[in-house]
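Hi everyone,

Forwarding the result from last night's run.
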Amino acid sequence: MAGEMKDPVLWEAMAIIAGGSVAGMAEGMTTVNRLRSNYVRQYLARLRYVGIDKQANALHPDLAAVMQ
């Protein structure tokens, strides 16, 4: 999971799609960053649901960076 957070090709492609074009990539990146943050928050919620109380400060640095 942390590895995919560092994959610029994935996130840049998603930003182009979210922005509607290459010209809209910057706007799309705002949407993508929100998506990434929600992804990590949901991951933490699922861990809590199954009894693993992992705090944000104990996350892999790449995952923690997404939440900031």
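The chain has a mean pLDDT of 88.

Cheers,
N.
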